[in-house]
Design brief:
With 149 residues, the protein is mainly alpha-helical. The chain has 9 helices and no strands. It starts with a helix and ends with a helix.
Length: 149
């Protein structure tokens, strides 16, 4: 079992993981029973290889600052990883509001200049769909579309 602990510790060190991801990985070891899996998870938590708050913060930072995702898409991703709502909120709170607004404006302007559509209504609709797909809130999208030229 110490060999499995080492493999899972390496798995967690390589990249932050949620409890759910580690549980899924543990299912690959079909010879382990539920108690042994639980013991490994407790060991990973106790030795600080697994920390859901740290995971939520890292996931949020990465998806926003690298992939330019909005809060809706980030929340959906964290929920898929079975992260509790209080940790999702802690993660989202670390996104600077000024960065958030400037990022959505930057995305909108870049996309606006690449949309090949002569009719303004259809062009705005395509921009709206793009920003929504990136996970931004409707009130931000509407405000940006109203002020785009």
């Amino acid at each position: 079992m110490s060999n499995i602990k080492k493999k899972l510790a390496d798995y967690c060190v390589y990249q932050e993981r949620s409890h759910y991801e580690v549980e899924q990985k543990l299912k690959e070891y079909t010879f382990l029973d539920q108690d042994e899996r639980g013991e490994i998870i407790v060991w990973l938590i106790h030795n600080n290889f697994l920390n859901e708050e740290r995971f939520a913060l890292s996931y949020t930072r990465g998806k926003f600052y690298q992939k330019k995702w909005g809060k809706i898409k980030i929340t959906q991703g964290l929920k898929q990883k079975k992260i509790p709502n209080n940790l999702i909120n802690i993660g989202l709170e670390q996104i600077n509001e000024d960065d958030y607004i400037s990022t959505i404006k930057e995305l909108a302007n870049k996309k606006w200049n690449t949309i090949r559509e002569s009719e303004i209504f259809l062009k705005k609709k395509k921009l709206y769909n793009y920003l929504q797909q990136k996970g931004y809130e409707n009130h931000f999208i509407h405000e940006i579309i109203e002020n785009i030229d």
